[in-house]
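Cont'd.
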Amino acid sequence: MRFAVRPARVALHVFLVLTCLTTLAPLLWALYASLRTYDDTARNGYFSVAESLTFDNFTAAWTQADLPHYYLNTLLVTLPALVLVLLLSSMVAYGVSRYSFRFNVALLVLFTAGNLLPQQVIVTPLYRLYLLTPLPSWLSDSGVLLDSQLGLVLIHVAFQSGFCVFVLSNYMKTIPHELGEAARVDGAGVFRQYWQVILPLCRPALAALATLEFTWIYNDFLWALVLIQTGDKMPITSALQNLKGTFFVDNNLVAAGSLLVALPTLVVFFTLQRQFIGGLTLGSTKG
Amino acid sequence: MTALESPAKPAGTSAPSPTSRRGRRRRATALAPRDKLVLGLMLGVPSLLHLALVWVPALGSVGLSFSSWDGIGGFADIEWVGFRNYVDIFTRYPRFWPALQHNLIWLLFLLVVPTVAGLLLAVLLDRQLRFGRIYQSALYLPMVLSLALVGFIWQLIYQPEHGLLNNVLGTASTDPVNWLGDPDINLYAVLVAAGWRHTGYVMLLYLAGLKSVDPALKEAAALDGANAWQTFFRVTFPVLRPVNVVVLVVTVIEGLRAFDIVYVINKGRNGLELLSVLVTDNIIGESSRIGWGSALAVVLLLISLGFIVTYLFQVFREEERT
């Protein structure tokens, strides 16, 4: 049965292969364009057989668009935000899922609903708020929260914690209460139960969330666009705009730049695919 | 464990009886003062941050929408104008109605095309299939790219003379279609790109949902003589109801948030106006019209609120009842 060739199966495979190729076509096209020289495409057009293939565009995009600098900017925002959001939301999730108090459900609803709000509803007053919040100069050379990377970290943490609290609290509810009780009998306080009993058990959910949140925070465009004003401090997705502006005619360079920007998320996707999918279906509330 | 299954299911396998519930409450009140403090901090600090940066600004938008503030001077200088911003937006702002219309087209498109395509692909892939994993990976790969990046990559396809599409159609040299420049068609061109990314997500949600459908149901249907179509529409699809709600909400939220892609293409002008773009223009644009931008944001909020409330009700109903 397994090896018998059935027409329906063949048709299915043909359909799926074609669909996959169509899906991948934009990326493959970008890759093809990025591997060709500007002269080649200027002479023969983009829709032609390449005379030669080269990685020159990648090195050019890397240096001309100052990509290492923007990668670093992104890293400085993404990593602290990722650690903080997982830490803080796991604390809230622990509280609401393991203890009963009056505002239990209300708190959970607050976090979940907060994450569903369109960012634009928040962004105008947030901008004013950031403008009015003074910071010492060693934290922000603008002297306020606006135009500082700390501000970007904070809004990522605040906004994304809604999603993480929802997912983690659902996950923690499946952990038997007896485990916490046993630790309590042994004299562990609230924090110790959280840190040494519950959190280690949440590792799969935390891994899934980490993968997903990395992708989302890395891919952020709007917060950075509004809350960062100095081009030099922009994270990489927003900085790509500069590459397009400066080298508008050179599609090859834009293609190479786009692929370089996509690279970290693609690497995460291919190496941690299982966690990534797990994360997406864990929450399923995220837009 | 997952939201797709029963998100509101209380801890443990059995529903807590009133006694066990009371027992838990007693335990909570029996916390030592130190533990109470620790728990208070663990809950309080993140909640304060979330409230201060998400809910205070969101409510601030509602408040400021009744003002005509240009952001200069303190809060004492704010002039309150009642509903004038809303009246002006609805009657005199030329960019508003097109933007609203584009948002609704956006919603409708995302709700139909990627949802149907995603469901179809999920059904096709939900079986023991050689290379199944490879197909899946290829189909949801676009998910990891940001909408901004999707905008960049699809520009390589849509450019009039150098783009892939016109070259494949053979119109590049003779009469190139300006896919992203023509205000009559650019919205749809962008929607294809946005749908390209969204389909994989929908497919994944349905795949996860289909996995949780009890195979015994399908077997029973087959024994009763149902064909594949009947089994799907009468048995499988009704069981997928929770997933449908999730897909609906995710799609609506995604549709209303859409911003990055049109912004990288042409800053959301010339046929690509969206409500999100109008709001952003009022903060980082040349004019700083806080009240006006807030009123636009509130319109966006009101559209999304219906869906958010429905969803929350669905998710938390069970929990509140206990």
